[in-house]
Design brief:
Layout lengths: L2 H19 L20 E3 L3 E8 L5 E9 L5 E8 L3 E5 L4 E2 L4 E8 L6 E11 L6 E11 L24 H4 L8 H8 L1 H4 L15 H5 L3 H10 L19 H14 L12
Parallel strand pairs: 2-9
Antiparallel strand pairs: 1-3, 3-7, 4-6, 4-8, 5-7, 8-9
Helix pairs in contact: 3-7, 6-7
């Protein structure tokens, strides 16, 4: 038997074995070198972390989640998708060799939160079996009432911010405005002059926030608000002052400004 004939028979045998064991098996290369590979496998040391009792006036808290590569090929963390109220960053290499481990730091800001809080963080990787892992953080946030300084803004959240006497500051100035002028009139007082974060609202320009939300999601948050922290819905459907065109103009402004640079001061999340 010639060497060429023997190689051909070996390739046919490998392909036959792959067909017998089913489509869920590892792919087989023509030269047989890929046989038996499982690819990367992502595993976390637990998927739930409870921060316990926190106060809404305290500093941010963090938890380092250790993750492992139980596979036989390099593991790549491709990105994270946090719900509002938490951020994530890789504090080790985003690429982990077989048998290695890395650390994902999740940071939670209790400011503006209240009661039982539950946030999630989706972690995307090149694990072919389970490419999306959902991590969950919990906390119980106590609201600490601070005495108001003369002329200071009272603690008001939700739709009441757009009603009564509050409407003169938070709703009526939006009339007839779009884009940057609209943002300056009703958004800047909470979220900062250029959405970098302010005393009463989180940054809208952190890299994770912008990278994990499309234009529709940004528009929904503006139109219908968020529950925790309690931002009101500014659309007319919710009793707010903004038309659909005005909402879209705000989304365009946030996209145009883009994420804050790494050199910028860290905003509130």
């Amino acid at each position: 038997m010639s060497p060429r004939s023997g190689n051909r028979r070996f390739r046919i045998l490998c392909l036959a074995v792959a067909l017998l064991v089913g489509p869920g098996s590892a792919a087989v290369e023509e030269d047989g070198t890929g046989y038996g590979k499982r690819g990367p496998r992502l595993r976390f040391d637990g998927t739930l972390h409870d921060f316990g009792d926190l106060r809404d006036d305290q500093d941010k808290v963090s938890h380092d989640w250790v993750f492992h590569n139980d596979g036989d090929e390099p593991l790549q963390i491709l990105g994270t998708r946090p719900s509002c109220g938490c951020t994530a960053s890789i504090v080790s290499e985003a690429s982990v060799p077989p048998g290695g481990q890395g650390v994902l730091r999740v940071t939670f800001d209790p400011a503006g939160q209240h009661g039982s809080v539950r946030k999630t963080l989706a972690v995307n990787s090149n694990d072919p079996t389970d490419p999306h892992v959902l991590l969950t953080i919990k906390a119980r946030v106590a609201v600490v009432e601070q005495p108001l300084e003369p002329g200071a803004h009272p603690r008001v959240t939700g739709q009441s911010l757009l009603m009564g006497e509050c409407a003169s500051c938070h709703a009526e100035p939006a009339d007839g405005k779009t884009a940057e002028a609209l943002y300056a009139s009703v958004c800047a007082m909470c979220h900062g002059a250029q959405a970098e974060g302010g005393a009463h609202g989180p940054s809208l320009r952190t890299p994770d926030y912008l990278a994990t939300r499309d234009d529709e999601e940004l528009g929904v948050a503006i139109s219908y608000g968020t529950s925790n922290p309690g931002m009101p819905g500014f659309s007319r459907t919710m009793g707010g002052p903004l038309t659909e065109e005005q909402v879209l103009s705000l989304v365009e402004v946030i996209r145009r400004w883009g994420p804050l640079s790494a050199a910028a001061p860290e905003p509130r999340d």
